Amino acid sequence: MNRLKALLGADRPVLFDGGMGTLLQDSGLEDGVPGELWNLENPEAVRAAHAAYATAGAQVLTTNSFGGTRPRLDLHGLGGRVGDVNREAAQIARSVADEHGVLVAGDLGPTGELLAPLGTLTGEEAQALFAEQLTALLAGGIDLVLVETLSDLGEADAALAAAREVAPDLPVVVTMSFDTNLRTMMGVRPGDAVVHLAAGGADAVGANCGRGPAEMELIAAEMAQARTGDVLLITQSNAGLPQVVGDHFEYDATADDMASHATRLAELGIDLVGGCCGSTPAHVAAMRATLNPA
Ligand SMILES: [Zn+2]
């Protein structure tokens, strides 16, 4: 039984939210400061970002915890605060979601360490890192688990094992970034990811981040071909590619571009649709409008 289907009901596609890191940067988060620190030091800004996405029509809010595993927080001297950072991330999203009657996805990003044989991290160690983060997210109150931007199926397996260990009743969504000639950095193809991760117990499998809507639609078509059993498919594309404008980056896909993208994804049978880097509440509102015309 697909746990996510039971949670979401029958309407498709379900709309997720858009980017968080890029949105916080627009709110004044400085270069080099991890966005997750704002769960502790500027929770009002995180709350405002969630509220903007909920108001735009997102049905699932993603916790601000992408870089919340211990090795990633260690880079900023915050390795001892995994519990605080992630519990707060979930509590902030939970409070906004409850006001709007929407769901919370607890976000796990890559550990930032390479697994053996390319690196030194073992699968068991990766599982323990994800389990530590997920335990804190659970304590803050989440409805589903979202593991995203992975490149390595071994790391995805470790995250799935952590979810089975810590949150066996919650649906798990796993997305990979196919940003290298329609494969992940490690060479994984979209169809192979769907087959492997569905067999590993993911309730939804898909793609996020990447090189913009056009490539995402090619990836979505490959995933749709490979769909097995009752696994759901998800995409969360970046809003195009970043372009240097003055002293900062701007992503080149407009809200209208993302809205037509959402329509094409729906036609391909993608069940869950959202945005990644550079997508804003305006993009999500346009996607909402086109997915549910009045
Ligand atoms: Zn991204």
From TrEMBL:
Keyword annotations: Metal-binding, Methyltransferase, Transferase, Zinc
Hcy-binding domain residues: 2-291
Organism: Nocardioides pini
Protein name according to UniProt: Homocysteine S-methyltransferase family protein
Methyltransferase is among the record's keywords: yes
Binding residues for Zn(2+): 209, 276-277
Name of one Pfam family that matches: S-methyl_trans
SUPFAM superfamilies: Homocysteine S-methyltransferase
Gene3D superfamilies linked: Homocysteine-binding-like domain (3.20.20.330)
Cofactor: Zn(2+)
